[in-house]
């Protein structure tokens, strides 16, 4: 045994017999880390279970269509709130989606310059603005100016939440479309706006729609910006220039009342809201996941089998 | 067919470009308008109190005795957010560790579930927190702790109703978990496979591999992810409003975990509609909003810098 | 165009005979891989390969891209445990212990088998010193004097000591590519392995750095059993004592290097070494 081997033995003998201990520590960490996941999922489970469990007893046709009854009587329903949520989502989308999409197009198709970088940065920062501040802004810009609460103000506020999200997801979806598609269009002599809309966007469609739906689901649950813009109401929609109810607002106001019946109605409203939001989220996941399994969703081997 | 060498000035394309650019600059206009509005509409309070608005603790809307100070709410926001981070960040990193290293069959559905936490609206977190979580938390944790240590440890001295700082902070922690864990997961995934293999080659266990290869490499990014969570927590409104106990003025200053408080966003949610624009109550609330906005922006800018720096390093580093 | 047929010549059918002129040496095998098969789903990347590696020798694995040589190499220290979807069957014996036996955790074995990868991958946030001691610290060695000693020893064996001895605290990524690779060798040597696996260690390096690596390998083989995957046939000739040629997952031929290149027994081997395909 020469000196290198001797040295090797010598150094080896200095290693601690610690492998068993290290494996125990490793196992412990695995358990801890898995528990973190469980700890996070338990609230989700509890929320869904409680909302369903408590809310289902409140649901009835009357509940879904009637106006709120007198406080504390347990009568009436959340009809105006449901209608309000649908209206406000629609109106906000009407304002926010076009701006977001065009913004995303700008960032993607005309975005290789300083201005675009500047805009992108501001877009990202704006996305993180607390939504209640957006509500204040809408209040100052619209409610204060026209002198009363208004649906436009609420839709404006929510559109401010929507458009940066839509802009970002649109930009990312468009950027995933290979340059060759655009070059092919140019080579055919097509105008840029036609190329963008008919070629690039149709390729990026599913990504864009996913982003849009995600932003819709996000604003469906927003409460804070609505507090000082549409205020809330016990009546169905009357005019765009009047207060209106919405599910999140109604849930909040019901939760503040000390009556069990109000609490129950709150759960019912929460159930309706959760169904809408989960519906959109799960719909995105399953519809687009399945759509993606077209030609490009499969592995090379599966594709080969298809072709052969 | 002739291909023109000079780009023809097609009108429709020009209109398109202008339209897209206008849409792009919309955000800049909004931000500028917002800054202007917030500053000018809150001006009365700055005029009245000056910078002392940030350090005063009064909150009195009674006419002729109006006096407003934002400090209790600034402290409330920072306290709840800090506690939320202390609870939420370790959980999120644990989750990210698990999911980034788990096989896709397990990781993907669990990751989806954690992200579903983000889809639940804040007001429903508040509802659940108010009628479900609070009861258990109060009875199983707050009351025992208060009875055992309330006299000695100031943290547990408040009278536990469940509508307090700690309840709001715990719910806040749950709410930031999806963000922090998703970003952390991306950052951990960005660690090159060869780094991990080098650690394994030396005979490291999985945990040791994380300590050798993943954490040193992704430290900056993980800090960024945590600060992103902080930014979320700071801006959160409804759930906090429903759980924080609604104190105002000096009694809103965070004193014990089981005592009520108020955050910048919750005071606005609670009082904005009632404030008369004639008084300086509303400017005071708008002033609080301005402070909140500035804090939120600074936190988020820092977070973004840390995260993108980390992801850029990943692209640049392995080019030697 | 002639069709390429493959008739694997495994070690079982080609006995390791000694020629009359050489004295009787104890032909001790450090590592024996028996019937190793690696499959990813339906595809077999390595098909029933058996190889025996003599102690203190350098064995080169050559073959065209995708032939499974790297996949096979990674079986020898159970790196496939980390790969999703990979299934490994067969035995890998090191000193009469099966690496794949269920009783012993691979960590024990990985201390005996070091690995150097294709692209130098030192830990970027650590200094040269910390990179070399990384494995030692895992094994509980804390004494600074001993760590210093082993660091010097390992860096000297990797022929890097003279270049870094004045600044061991330098960050590892400040070194050149060739230096980083030698650092990785030192890091692997620091845990006192007996076998060194090298996956195309010089392919990312310039010619001068490559030469230094090859010199290192030639020096190291006196005390280590080295198995090196290379796509560079000249390198295999320069450095190795034995060479295994693989093609599409099969071991086609395994012989002493000189003999394999000058007088290959298999038609496929002949075509490859003559450069008919790569």
Descriptive labels:
heterotrimer; A: mainly alpha; 76% helix; disordered C terminus; B: 320 residues; mainly alpha; two-stranded antiparallel sheet; 10 helices; 71% helix; 1% strand; flat
Summarize the structure in words:
The complex is a heterotrimer of chains A (308), B (320) and C (278). By secondary structure, chain A is mainly α. Chain A is built from 13 helices and no strands. The longest helix of chain A has 38 residues, at 19-56. Chain A starts with a helix and ends with a helix. Chain B is mainly α and 320 residues long. Chain B is 71% helix and 1% strand. Chain B has 10 helices and 2 strands, in the order H-E-E-H-H-H-H-H-H-H-H-H. The radius of gyration of chain B is 25 Å and the shape is flat. In chain B, 54% of the residues are buried. Residues 316-320 of chain B have low confidence and may be disordered. Chain C is globular, with a radius of gyration of 19 Å. Chain C has 10 helices and 10 strands. The longest helix of chain C is centred in the middle third of the chain and has 14 residues, at 144-157. Chain C has 278 residues and is α/β, with parallel strands linked by helices. Classes of the chains: A mainly alpha (308), B mainly alpha (320), C alpha/beta (278). Chains A and B meet through helix 2, helix 4, helix 5, helix 6 and helix 7 of A and helix 1, helix 2, helix 3, helix 4 and helix 5 of B.
Summarize it.
The complex is a heterotrimer of chains A (308), B (320) and C (278). Chain A is mainly α. Chain A contains 13 helices and no strands.
- Average the pLDDT over all residues of chain C and give the rounded result: 84
Strand count, sense and barrel status of the largest sheet of chain C are: 6 strands, mixed
What low-confidence regions of chain C span 5 or more consecutive residues with pLDDT below 50?
1-26
User: How do the strands of the widest beta sheet of chain C line up side by side?
Assistant: 6-7-8-3-9-10
Please give the number of β-strands of chain C.
10
- End-to-end distance of chain C: 16 Å
**Oligomeric state of the chains?**
heterotrimer
Q: What pattern of helices and strands is seen along the backbone of chain A? A: HHHHHHHHHHHHH
What's the mean pLDDT score of chain A?
87
In whole angstroms, the N-to-C terminal distance of chain A is 62 Å
Helix content of chain A: over 70%
Number of helices of chain C: 10
Number of helices of chain A: 13
**Would you tell me the structural class of the helices and strands of chain C?**
alpha/beta
Cα Rg of chain C: 19 Å
| Helical residue percent band of chain C | 25-40%
Strand element count of chain A: 0
Principal-axis shape of chain A equals flat
For the largest interface in this structure, which chains are involved and how many residues does each contribute?
A: A-B, 85 and 85 residues
Biggest beta sheet summary of chain A? none
Question: Taking Cα atoms only, what radius of gyration of chain A do you get, to the nearest Å?
Answer: 27 Å
């Amino acid at each position: 045994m020469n000196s290198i081997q001797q040295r090797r033995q010598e150094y080896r003998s200095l290693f601690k017999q610690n492998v068993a201990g290290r494996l125990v520590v490793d196992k412990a960490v695995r358990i801890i880390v898995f528990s973190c996941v469980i700890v996070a999922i338990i609230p989700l489970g509890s929320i869904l279970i409680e909302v369903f469990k408590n809310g289902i007893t409140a649901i009835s046709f009357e509940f879904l269509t009637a106006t709120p009854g007198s406080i504390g009587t347990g009568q009436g329903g959340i009809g105006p709130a449901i209608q309000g949520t649908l209206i406000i989502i629609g109106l906000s989308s009407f304002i926010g989606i076009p701006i977001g999409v065009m913004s995303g197009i700008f960032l993607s198709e005309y975005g290789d310059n300083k201005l675009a970088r500047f805009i992108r940065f501001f877009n990202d920062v704006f996305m993180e603005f607390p939504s209640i501040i957006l509500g204040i802004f809408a209040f100052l810009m619209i409610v204060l100016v026209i002198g009363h609460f208004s649906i436009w103000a609420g839709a404006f506020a929510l559109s401010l939440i929507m458009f940066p999200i839509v802009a970002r997801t649109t930009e990312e979806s468009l950027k995933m479309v290979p340059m060759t598609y655009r070059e092919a269009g140019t080579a055919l002599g097509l105008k840029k706006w036609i190329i963008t809309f008919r070629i690039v966007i149709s390729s990026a469609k599913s990504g864009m729609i996913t982003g849009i739906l995600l932003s819709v689901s996000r604003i469906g649950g927003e409460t804070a910006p609505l507090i000082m813009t549409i205020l809330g109401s016990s009546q169905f929609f009357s005019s765009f220039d009047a207060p209106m109810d919405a599910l999140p607002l109604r849930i909040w106001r019901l939760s503040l009342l000390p009556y069990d019946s109000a609490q129950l109605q709150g759960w019912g409203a929460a159930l309706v809201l959760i169904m809408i939001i989960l519906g959109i989220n799960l719909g995105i996941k399953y519809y687009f996941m399945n759509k993606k399994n077209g030609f490009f969703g499969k592995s090379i081997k599966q594709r080969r089998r298809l072709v052969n | 067919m002739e291909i023109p060498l000079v780009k023809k000035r097609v009108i429709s394309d020009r209109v398109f470009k202008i339209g897209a650019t206008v849409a792009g600059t919309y955000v800049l206009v909004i931000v500028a308008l917002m800054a202007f509005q917030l500053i000018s509409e809150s001006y009365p309070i700055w005029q009245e109190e000056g910078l002392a608005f940030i350090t005063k603790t009064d909150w009195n809307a009674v006419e002729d005795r109006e006096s407003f100070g934002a400090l209790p709410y600034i402290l409330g926001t920072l306290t709840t957010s800090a506690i939320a981070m202390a609870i939420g960040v370790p959980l999120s990193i644990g989750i990210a560790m698990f999911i980034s290293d788990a096989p896709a069959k397990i990781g993907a559905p669990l990751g989806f579930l954690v992200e579903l936490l983000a889809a639940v609206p804040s007001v429903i977190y508040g509802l659940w927190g108010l009628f479900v979580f609070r009861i258990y938390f109060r009875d199983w944790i707050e009351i025992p702790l208060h009875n055992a240590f309330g006299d000695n440890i100031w943290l547990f001295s408040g009278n536990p109703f469940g509508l307090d700082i700690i309840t709001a902070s715990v719910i806040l922690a749950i709410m930031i978990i999806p963000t922090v864990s998703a970003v952390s997961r991306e950052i951990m995934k960005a660690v090159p496979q060869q780094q991990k293999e080098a650690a394994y080659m030396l005979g490291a266990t999985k945990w040791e591999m994380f300590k050798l290869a993943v954490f040193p490499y992704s430290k900056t990014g993980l800090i960024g992810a945590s600060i992103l969570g902080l930014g979320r927590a700071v801006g959160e409104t409804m759930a906090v409003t429903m759980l924080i106990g609604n104190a105002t003025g000096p009694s809103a200053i965070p004193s014990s975990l089981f005592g009520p408080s108020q955050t910048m966003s919750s005071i606005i949610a609670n009082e904005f509609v009632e404030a008369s624009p004639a008084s300086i109550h509303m400017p005071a609330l708008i002033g609080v909003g301005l402070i909140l906005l500035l804090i939120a922006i600074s936190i988020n800018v820092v977070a973004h810098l840390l995260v993108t720096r980390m992801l850029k390093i990943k692209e640049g580093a392995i080019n030697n | 165009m002639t069709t390429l047929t493959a008739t694997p010549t495994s070690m079982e059918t080609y006995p390791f005979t000694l020629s009359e002129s050489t004295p009787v040496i104890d032909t001790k095998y450090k590592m024996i891989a028996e019937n190793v098969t690696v499959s990813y789903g339906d595809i077999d990347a390595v098909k029933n390969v058996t190889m025996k590696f003599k102690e203190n020798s350098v064995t080169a694995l050559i073959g065209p891209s995708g032939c499974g040589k790297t996949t096979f190499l990674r079986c020898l220290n159970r790196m496939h445990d980390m790969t999703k979807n990979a299934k490994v069957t067969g035995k890998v014996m090191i000193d009469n212990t099966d690496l794949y036996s269920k009783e012993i955790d691979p960590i024990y074995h990985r201390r005996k088998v070091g690995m150097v990868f294709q692209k130098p991958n030192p830990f970027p946030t650590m200094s040269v010193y910390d990179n070399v001691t990384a494995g030692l610290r895992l094994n509980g060695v804390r004494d600074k004097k001993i760590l210093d000693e082993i660091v010097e020893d390992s860096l000297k064996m990797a022929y890097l000591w003279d270049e870094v001895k004045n600044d061991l605290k330098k960050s590892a990524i400040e070194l050149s590519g060739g230096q980083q690779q030698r650092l990785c060798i030192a890091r692997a040597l620091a845990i006192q392995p007996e076998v060194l696996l090298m996956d195309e260690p010089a392919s990312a390096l310039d010619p001068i750095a490559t030469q230094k690596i090859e010199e290192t390998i030639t020096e190291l083989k006196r005390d280590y059993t080295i198995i090196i995957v290379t796509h560079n046939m000249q390198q295999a000739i320069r450095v190795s004592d034995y060479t295994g040629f693989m093609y599409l997952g099969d071991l086609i031929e395994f012989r002493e290097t000189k003999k394999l290149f000058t007088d290959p027994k298999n038609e496929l081997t002949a075509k490859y070494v003559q450069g008919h395909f790569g």
